Amino acid sequence: MDLLQLKYFQVIARTENMTNAAKQLHVTQSALSKSIALLEMDLGVKLFDRKGRSIKLNYCGNIFLKRVDSILNLLDTSTKEIKDLACSEFDQIKLIVLTASGLILDVLSEFKKLHPNISFKLMQHVPKSTFDYDFDICITSYCFEFKSSNYEVLTSEEIFIGIPYNNPLSKLNSIYFKDVQDENFICLEEGTNFRKITDRFCNYADFEPNVCFECDSPSTVYNLIKEGHGVGFIPEKSWCIDYESSIKLLPINDIRCEQFIELYWTDNKFLNKSTRMFIDFIKNYLNK
User: Fold this and answer.
1) What fold characterizes domain 3-86?
2) Residues 6+ away with beta carbon under 8 Å from 31
3) What pLDDT, on the 0 to 100 scale, is given for residue 192?
4) Is the pTM of this model over 0.85?
5) Residue 210 dihedral angles phi and psi, to the nearest 5°
6) Ranges of the chain whose pLDDT falls below 50
7) pLDDT at 51
8) Which end of the chain is more exposed for a tag (fewer CB within 10 A), N or C?
9) Where do the CATH 1.10.10.10 domains begin and end in the chain?
10) How is residue 270 annotated by DSSP?
């Protein structure tokens, strides 16, 4: 039994298809069949049930797959850890930013000044169907998609209703949802993290905003409110816009509207030294 056999078994077990496994591993089907036959001979049990040309992982195979996953993950983590000791200043950090992008770009700029040799692969959109992709850390304000227990709250911020100064409501110091029930709302498009959060607060308060504009960028939301086309939900700081001179931000009395900016990383993934340095840096930066 060797590591190559275990890797072959892992791919075959996950695909349950010799043709697909062979393509994925860039080997012949006969080589895979021979490898699995030798592995089953060493173990003294069958790992797959075979019917004609189809294969299906059996009970013993499922148990063995769990152990193989643990072994190969431990090997991968150990290899990365040793490499990390030798070379930490030339790492790449794979970062997903799903919220507060303006704020995070400021953080990245300051971090790069201190660590110019550390590079970033920055992603701001991810597939909606799965979170099974390669990243080191993710910054988000809406965590329900994640199947991970590894997270930290970086900071929190209040969510206000932004009112243009030509609207009489701007003379108020705070506001109730009933005060804006006849106002046109300008919102980020459905599916964005911030929209999910504000929709949830509206549902809690049994309030349905009259959405007249849906936008794909915070700056467009802000500009439309500033020009007097309606009102809208505005976060306290994460959009990095100077609101005070152009719109009035009113606290919401019905419910405490707040979003938490959180940092996630996947279970069983080794975080290299550079990534750990960045995590410490961003925590300190956002809470200074």
Assistant:
1) Arc Repressor Mutant, subunit A (1.10.10)
2) 22
3) 85
4) no
5) -85, 90
6) 129-131, 144
7) 80
8) C
9) 3-86
10) P
Cα angle for residues 285, 286, 288 (degrees, 5° grid):
65
Which contacts of 49-56 are long-range, i.e. CB under 8 A and separated by 24 or more positions? Answer: 53/18, 54/16, 55/12, 55/16, 55/17, 55/18, 56/16
Q: Options 3.30.565.10, 3.90.230.10, 3.90.550.60, 3.40.190.290; which CATH number does 89-288 get?
A: 3.40.190.290
Residues 6 or more apart whose Cβ sits within 8 Å of residue 176: 252, 253, 254
Q: Are 261 and 155 in contact (CB under 8 A)?
A: yes
| CA–CA dist 32, 179 (Å, integer) | 69
- The pLDDT, as a whole number, for residue 111 is 94
Q: What is the helix (H) or strand (E) element at residue 51, kind and residue range? A: strand 48-51
Q: Cα 276 from chain centroid?
A: 17
Residue labelled with tokens 């009970």: 59
How far from the centroid of its chain's Cα atoms is residue 59's Cα? 34
Phi-psi region of 58 (alpha: psi -120 to 50; beta: other; left: phi over 0): beta
Please enumerate in sequence order all residues whose Cβ is within 8 A of that of 168, keeping only pairs 6 or more positions apart, or say none: none
